[in-house]
Design a protein that fits this description.
The chain has 60 helices and two strands. It is mainly alpha-helical and 1225 residues long. Among the domains are: 160 residues; 79 residues, no CATH class; 170 residues, no CATH class; 202 residues, no CATH class; 162 residues, no CATH class. The longest helix has 33 residues. This is Sister chromatid cohesion protein PDS5. One of its GO terms (biological process) is synaptonemal complex assembly.
Length: 1225
């Protein structure tokens, strides 16, 4: 096309007149012709005909013509005129105003792509863009109104079927207008910015923006960053100023907060797409972060957090707005907990989405997260835990995790706040699971060790004895720590071994307890299914006997005791039974059967849960609807507790393979043999082969086989090589191997033959034999396995052991021994260095086994007396070990003294074997009050391991009711335990046992107060202090006893039983001390020892009275019947007069009572001062070279537990010490 100026050829009239009327058809033809002619021109010679045309085109008859066709062609012609006349417009301002009104009118028709003139409308738009003619709108008088109308028109088009090809054209037009307009209407700014607020991020999933109105706003902002930055800043400032001047009590406050929320949301959207536009806003946000108003700070904190969490931001906030970033980090120290909580909520998106996060940024965020995890406010800690949960594990390991954070999680796992605790358990479980699935995620050794300790942290929660916590532990164990989703047996067993090997002693006990519980739950569940079968066989509920419903209630109540209260457990399980679906029962039976392999259990669970998830399957006509989530949760938890998962038979063969290289696998196998020995039925040959093999440690395997064949003697291995291996181990194995080899032989049908052969090989005992300890162990076990094979040598063996083992120390290497603080069982069995100690321990076991081997079920009274007489020297021997601090060798003996670690071990061994003897009724009578008092020395021993292990043994015996209730008061001597963890553990155990006792309506704990009073009245330290004579010393004596009594009352005392406790303590004054001779009470003046009992009784009453007052509990008269005190320690009064004289007499003088009451109040109010030892050691502590046990208490009592060596306690138990009461919790 030529660039020369061309004159227009069109010369016809366009405006109809009276003289020259034009039909619409003719007019349409003329303007169409003119439009076509103008459209092909690039330039034009401005001749008169053009001037006339320019005038005609803006005639209102044309602009407002009734024909749409005429209107659009006229507008197209004008657009071309403006194009050809550029840069000058041949129209006046008023004419331009009319023109743009006509244009806007045509733009409204762009939404209909099917209209006849759609192409002309598009042409009009295109011509205006090409020539930038739209900017002329800024020169007309009513430009603001026209600009607003133009924007409204184009934005409204998008609400209908908008042609996507016009997006760019319209965006360019609007951008030009914003660029050239001197004043931009407020409504236009609102319109542009609102599209950011309304934009849906989901439309950007594929990276293609499909929202036309958003495209308009985005293009406008991108093309006018500088200008809109100022406008946005001004827009924000106006609203912020309004917020600062608004009366906080004003009704406009809500509306204002809505505006503030809106602009902050807008800030986030603008940051996401055009971060540069916020340059004027960031300083305002800085001010907001430091504003006095909490709501303003809250909004600003959330806004900055969301900006930092934007996924596709084009700008690095940490660099471009560094000052704002630093201020924002400080919001973790904001005075408002709501602001702090809001801060930590932002963390997951920042870590997950922000591509600019460096190691330095990560470190700063981790430090702040640590602060939030230890925040004093619950909601901040809740938010921190939830944030960690939302962060993908890989990113958490790569960017967030620190030792402090993991340690924080180990603390929050024990929170009282349920949400914090549950979320933390969930988080730690997921961290552990991810780490075990991909160990390369962590490279830091210390962090790896901490993550490996997670199972300990979770499993130890069992000791809190809270049913909600226990449920979370169960779910975490089987969903995260040892997930049931793992189908590969090799990986599953490897995971099991790794977990168990990382557990500490308490963790192992918890893990074992959880698996032991399976057997109990499965039995109950079987009974439940049997009850369900009755429902299945009945035609109607009315046909079922009432006893069945009573039985069902009893079973369900037993199960639901350990289930959460808010999950409708009882209703769900009752519905499960009443549904009587044979398929449901069949699937449950498969899950809890020890014969089911792992995949069978898992698939059965999966099918059952799927069926229970369908509401149609769990509804009964006429019954209340049950939530499927509750039903699935309860049944799932019940099956996890009842199914053989960890100890499944599918795992056994793999575990047996592991035993060749792993002692952990051996331990697990032994536990399986104790809990579910049934699973070994198909694996006993493999276990037997491990015993037959040479050069492998066999003690654990031997224990496993023993527990199995003990329950299933019919499965005893028949191979001769197996028996020969056992016989060999009894002669040359380790002492522990010999012990269990003989135990197994004792179950064999040929035990007499092999026992005799063993005795012939090892007897007489050779003290110099390298296998002397092994032979001693075998003989000790033979007393139980086959008593007749060794009983004829009993006297000779006893003389040998007393003379050469107990009364002397053989083969001591004191320099090496002094490197040890404690010697555990494994070290004894593996280390020849401690053979002297091991000999003594084995000799004690031999004596006790000899006594235990006597079958007291059919003994005559004469035979029982003989058995008791035989036991007395043994019990005296054991008591002398305890009473003499583990030392019974004469000082004149050249091997004196026994090394300290050995004495500690001997004290513990003596105590543990005394408890073993106490299980037998025939020997229980030998445990008189002095013996029991001596055993309290072990609970307050100077060595932590002695205290801990003896208490653990005592707890087990009491929990299983294997020993008499007279041992129960011993446990309360833990009151002065300096190791907080041990004391807390025992306290939790006591609380648990009290709950169990209450559920059975048993008052044995309350009644144990009677024995505790008697024990304290005869306690060495109380006697030492009370007999000193001075009032100060007497106060200290009462304060000493008060420590135990307050501990007891705070644990046992409740509003329901406080009257009973008071009654029992006062009842003591109606009895004589049964341990004193009757003649003592016949004297005119009662002996001091008789008075001590009544003094402790009064002290107890003072404590109970004070405690009930503190709790505002009424101390009413005990409404129950008369309770007689135990006759072994109490004797009746000779007459009512004697009783009245004792009851009416006060045994604690008033001047002493005042000081004692002051101490009682401080102890009951539970100040947190740390316990101090009873006495300080006068012997300097040895420097230890080697530590074999890491649980050594940092502060331990140093009493040497002997009445023989009297200690002056006056200085150690001063009144000032007791005035600052110890931690009694």
């Amino acid at each position: 096309m030529t660039s020369a100026k061309i004159s227009i050829k069109f010369n016809k009239s366009l405006v109809p007149t009276v003289k020259d009327p034009l039909s619409t058809k003719e007019l349409l033809a003329r303007v169409q012709t003119l439009s076509e002619e103008l459209s092909i021109l690039d330039t034009i010679d401005k001749s008169k005909p053009l001037a006339r045309i320019e005038v005609d085109l803006v005639n209102k008859k044309l602009l407002n013509h009734t024909s749409i066709g005429v209107q659009i062609y006229v507008c197209c012609c004008i657009a071309d005129i403006l194009r050809l006349s550029a840069p000058e417009a041949p129209y006046s301002a008023n004419q331009l105003s009319d023109i743009f009104k006509a244009f806007i009118k045509q733009f409204k028709r762009l939404s209909d792509s099917n209209n006849t003139y759609f192409q002309q409308h598009c042409y009009l738009l295109k011509r205006l863009v090409e020539a930038k003619s739209t900017i002329l709108i800024t020169d007309v008088p009513d430009s603001e109104a026209l600009i607003e109308s133009l924007f409204q028109t184009f934005y409204n088009l998008t609400k209908q079927d908008f042609p996507s090809q016009l997006e760019t054209l319209i965006s360019d037009i609007l951008s030009e207008v914003i660029s050239e307009a001197e004043v931009i209407p407020h409504n236009v700014i609102d319109l542009i910015l609102n599209k950011f607020l309304l934009h849906d991020d989901s439309k950007l999933i594929t990276g293609n923006i499909t929202s036309p109105e958003f495209t308009f706003s985005l293009t406008i902002c991108e093309n006018n960053v500088d200008r809109l930055s100022r406008l946005v800043g001004q827009y924000f400032s106006e609203i912020l100023y309004e917020s600062s001047t608004t009366d906080k009590s004003s009704t406009d406050l809500v509306e204002l907060m809505e505006k503030l929320t809106k602009i902050h949301k807008l800030s986030v959207q603008l940051w996401k797409f055009i971060p540069e536009i916020l340059s004027s806003v960031m300083s305002l946000l800085d001010d907001e972060l430091n504003a006095e108003d909490e709501q303003i700070r809250l909004l600003a904190t959330a806004t900055i957090g969301k900006m930092l969490g934007c996924k596709e931001s084009k700008s690095n906030f940490f660099v471009t707005h560094k000052e704002t970033w630093i201020i924002w980090l400080k919001k973790t120290s904001d005075v408002s907990s709501t602001v702090r909580a809001k801060w930590v909520e932002q963390l997951p998106n920042i870590i997950t989405n922000n591509k600019y996060v460096t190691s330095e940024i990560s470190s700063a965020l981790s430090t702040c997260l640590h602060k939030c995890l230890v925040d004093i406010d619950d909601k901040v800690r809740v938010g921190a835990c939830h944030s960690i949960k939302e962060i993908p594990v890989e990113l958490f390991f790569n960017k967030v995790i620190t030792k402090n954070i993991v340690q924080d999680l180990f603390q929050t796992i024990r929170e009282k706040n349920v949400t914090i605790r549950n979320v933390t358990i969930d988080v730690l479980g997921k961290l552990y699971n991810s780490h075990m699935n991909n160990r390369e995620l962590l490279t830091d050794e210390e962090l790896t060790k901490m993550i490996g300790n997670i199972p300990n942290q979770i499993l130890n929660l069992v000791y809190i004895n809270d049913k909600d916590i226990n449920c979370m532990v169960d779910l975490s164990l089987f969903e995260a720590l040892l997930p049931i989703t793992e189908l590969d047996t090799s990986r599953r067993v490897k995971r099991l071994v790794q977990l168990y090997s990382a557990l500490d002693e308490k963790g192992k006990e918890s893990f074992i307890a959880i698996n032991k519980r399976q057997s109990q739950f499965s039995k109950v569940l079987n009974t439940l299914i049997e009850t369900g079968d009755i429902f299945a066989k009945s035609t109607s509920v009315e046909d079922i006997d009432k006893s069945v419903f009573a039985k069902l209630d009893k079973i369900l109540n037993w199960i639901c005791v350990s289930f959460p209260d808010d999950r409708n457990s009882f209703v769900c399980f009752e519905r499960l039974v009443k549904l009587a679906r044979p398929r449901f029962f069949h699937l449950i039976k498969l899950c809890i059967s020890s014969d089911s392999d792992f995949n069978t259990i898992r698939n059965s669970m999966k099918e059952l849960f799927k069926k229970l998830s369908d509401s149609k399957n769990i509804q009964l006509q006429g019954e209340t609807a049950i939530s499927t989530s509750d039903m699935v949760y309860n049944v799932k938890l019940l099956l996890l507790r009842s199914s053989v998962l960890c100890y499944n038979k599918s795992n056994v063969e793999e575990l047996i393979e592991y035993t060749k290289d792993s002692t952990t696998a051996n331990e697990i196998l032994e536990q399986i043999s104790l809990v579910v020995p049934d699973v070994f039925k198909s694996h006993i040959r493999s276990l037997a082969s491990l015993i037959i093999e040479e050069n492998t440690k066999k003690s654990n395997v031997l224990r496993t086989v023993y527990h199995f064949v003990k329950k299933y003697p019919e499965w005893f291995p028949k191979e001769i090589s197996f028996m020969e291996s056992l016989k060999k181990l009894a002669q040359v194995g380790t002492p522990r191997e010999a012990r269990y080899a003989v135990k197994i032989i004792g179950i064999s049908p040929s035990k007499e033959l092999y026992s005799a052969e063993i005795v012939n090989e090892i007897y007489p005992l050779d003290l110099e034999s390298e296998h002397f300890c092994t032979h001693l162990s075998s003989i000790g076990e033979l007393f139980k396995a086959d008593r007749l094979s060794i009983i004829d040598k009993e006297v000779e063996i006893t003389e040998l052991l007393i003379k050469h083992l107990f009364l002397t120390n053989r083969n001591l290497d004191r320099e090496q021994i002094d490197k040890f603080e404690w010697i555990d069982e494994d070290e004894l069995d593996d280390n020849k260095l401690h053979s002297t100690l091991y000999e003594k321990v084995l000799a004690i076991r031999l004596f006790v086994n000899n006594l235990k081997s006597i079958d007291d079920s059919n003994l005559t009274s004469e035979e029982k007396d003989k058995a008791k007489a035989k036991a007395q020297p043994v019990t005296r021997l054991l008591m002398s070990f305890i009473g003499n601090n583990g030392e019974i060798i004469n000082k004149k003996n050249e091997t004196y003294p026994t090394p300290e670690p050995y004495k500690s071990k001997l004290r513990l061994t003596a105590g543990v074997y005394l408890l073993k003897l106490a299980k037998f009724p025939i020997y229980n009578e030998l445990f008189l009050p002095p013996t029991l008092r001596r055993m309290t020395f072990l609970i307050n021993d100077s060595e932590y391991n002695v205290r801990s292990k003896f208490v653990t043994c005592l707890q087990a015996k009491l929990a299983n009711e294997e020993i008499s209730e007279k041992f129960l008061p011993l446990i309360f001597f833990i009151a002065i335990e300096p190791n907080h963890e041990l004391k807390e553990s025992v306290t939790i155990w006591i609380n648990s046992m009290v709950k169990r006792s209450e559920s059975k309506n048993n008052i044995k704990f309350e009644k144990s107060l009677i024995r505790l009073i008697h024990t304290l009245a005869h306690h060495d330290q109380f006697l030492t202090l009370i007999e000193d004579g001075s009032n100060e010393s007497k106060v200290n004596a009462y304060n000493f006893s008060c420590r135990f009594l307050t501990y007891f009352i705070k644990l046992i005392g409740k509003s329901e039983n406080i009257s009973l406790l008071y009654y029992l303590s006062s009842r003591v004054k109606q009895y004589r001390d049964g341990s004193l001779a009757t003649a003592e009470y016949e004297k005119s003046n009662l002996p001091e020892q008789a008075l001590h009992l009544y003094r402790i009784s009064e002290l107890t009453q003072l404590i109970i009275k004070q405690y009930s007052d503190d709790k505002s509990w009424p101390l009413a008269t005990w409404p129950g019947g008369k309770i007689n005190l135990p006759s072994d320690i109490y004797a009746p009064m000779s007459s009512p007069e004697e009783a009245r004289s004792i009851v009416g007499r006060v045994f604690i003088p008033e001047d002493i009572q005042a000081d004692v009451l002051n101490s009682i109040r401080k102890k009951l109010h539970g100040s947190k001062r740390k316990n101090t030892p009873l006495v300080s050691s006068s012997v300097p502590k040895r420097q230890k070279v080697k530590k074999t046990v890491k649980t050594k208490s940092p502060s331990e009592p140093t009493r040497k537990s002997s009445r023989i060596t009297r200690v002056d306690y006056k200085d150690q138990l001063s009144d000032s010490e007791y005035g600052s009461s110890e931690d009694e919790n």
